[in-house]
Amino acid sequence: MVVGEVAVETDVVVIGGGPGGYAAAIRLGQLGQSVVLIEKEVLGGVCLNRGCIPSKALIHAAGEYHKLSSLNKLGIQLPTGKATFHMPSWQSWKSSVVTQLNKGVDYLCQANGVTVVKGTATFLSSDRIGVETGGDFETYKFKHAIIATGSRPLIPSFLKPDGEYILDSTDMLALEEVPQTLAIIGGGYIGMELGMALAKLGSQVTVIEAAERILPQTAAHLSREVLKQAKQLGMTVKITTKVEKAEVVDGRVTLTCTSEKNGSESITAHKALITIGRVPNTGELGLAQAGVEMDERGYIPVAPTGSTNKSHIYAIGDVTPGPALAHRAAKQGIVAAEVIAGLPSSVDSPYVPYVIFTEPQIAGVGMTREEAELQGYKVKVATFPYRANGRALAMDKGEGFAEVIVDQESHLLLGMHVVGADASNLIGEGVLALELAARVEDVALTMHPHPTLSEVWLEAAEAVLGHAIHIVNKSKVAANK
């Protein structure tokens, strides 16, 4: 098509084919809406292609490789000689996983009548959108639109990635060999996840964090467990330290850093990875032509239904204020689709779980103790250590603990957090418990299978009530101090 031709009419256009966008498009198709899903690259978005899935594939591979050094005490005798990690083989395996998932998303879109258009979308007005598709330009007229364009790495002007020495997370996951030394700028969850994985594969890793501790958005007592493991892996962690300059000289990156403790210092590494945050992809969508409002940071404020200030235009996922999490985006996308189709739907739950795939893993849902107290609750808090769990010890994974935060008067569960092996899967029980407004007795009276890691929730709940079996119960719960 050329500009000026008759627009293709559709019920809904969805801009962005990531976890939120394709979930919305598929749900709309299920509900009988005509849908055009516009994606400028590959279905699945950053999460499937360059983020969540590839990074977890690397973390898993690194974990399996790292286990080899401790198998001897389990009675497993390996042949003499040092094991090696072959990055190109891992890249092939990762690509096969991503490809399989890509095909699955594409098939589901087709099966639900979603029209997928590859191109770059721009709003022309409040009911028209233009799409550049190669050398062509197509126009679509819509009744409703869903903005699901995601986010990109925040890159300071003096730290431009070059794809070879100064890297963003996408570049890191495309490497063909493990860097001998690696400097990571930013000790948040992406930096710590990738840093610990590379350390397990043999890289000498230095993490540079401007805040007073790593994982600054996570409760301090949870992140301390990760810091312990980082040091055991030989990682160097520099806190309250800012990077002021980066130079590439003779195949190395030299970072000039400053801190109150050490003043100015230089850190040199074979590669430098930037992981200091993400920003929403909203600047080039033509939102002004559609009349959609953004805040000063480029995020689009939305109602619980996902609608913007233009009631027929919705926004979901990383372009909206709140945690940039794939499962949050998918939930928002399904809600927006259902509202568009006339169903009574809303994102009405505050319980958005988080998972950090460090060593050990961290996961949680609901309030921390500090957050609950700030909201005026009198709380009881109890923890149960992994080292007292039979399954954890049998797995040689005794680091970490589970924690429950409870309203002292009603015994309503306010928060559940866990740091330790398989925390990413264990937190599902916590999400369901809080969503059902469970009291701590509901968890304590529920029979948990033995021997499993899930028993940490049972024992933590019983500890709040003063009758845990596998730890000594304190006369007063620690939260009352």
Salient structural properties:
single chain, 481 residues, alpha/beta, FAD/NAD(P)-binding domain, Enolase-like, domain 1, seven-stranded mixed beta sheet, five-stranded parallel beta sheet, 14 helices, 22 strands, 31% helix, disordered C terminus
Structure description:
Belongs to the class-I pyridine nucleotide-disulfide oxidoreductase family. FAD binds at residues 56, 149-151, 318. This is Dihydrolipoyl dehydrogenase. Its EC number is 1.8.1.4. The protein is of the alpha/beta class and 481 residues long. The chain has 3 domains: 8-153 and 279-340, FAD/NAD(P)-binding domain (3-Layer(bba) Sandwich); 166-276, FAD/NAD(P)-binding domain (3-Layer(bba) Sandwich), CATH 3.50.50.60; 360-480, 2-Layer Sandwich (Enolase-like, domain 1), CATH 3.30.390. 31% of the residues lie in helices and 26% in strands. The protein has helices at residues 19-30, 45-50, 52-67, 87-111, 169-172, 189-200, 220-232, 287-290, 326-340, 369-374, 390-394, 423-435, 440-444, 455-465; strands at 8-15, 35-39, 114-118, 120-123, 128-133, 136-147, 151-153, 166-167, 181-185, 204-208, 236-238, 241-249, 252-259, 263-269, 271-274, 278-280, 313-315, 354-356, 362-366, 379-385, 400-407, 413-420. The strands form 5 sheets. Strands 1, 2, 3, 4, 5, 6 and 17 form a 7-stranded mixed β-sheet that branches. A 5-stranded parallel β-sheet has the order 8-15-9-10-11. Strands 18-19-22-21-20 form a 5-stranded antiparallel β-sheet, with helices on both faces. Helix 3 (52-67) packs parallel to helix 6 (189-200). The longest helix is centred in the first third of the chain and has 25 residues, at 87-111. It is globular. Mean pLDDT is 95; it is low at 476-481.
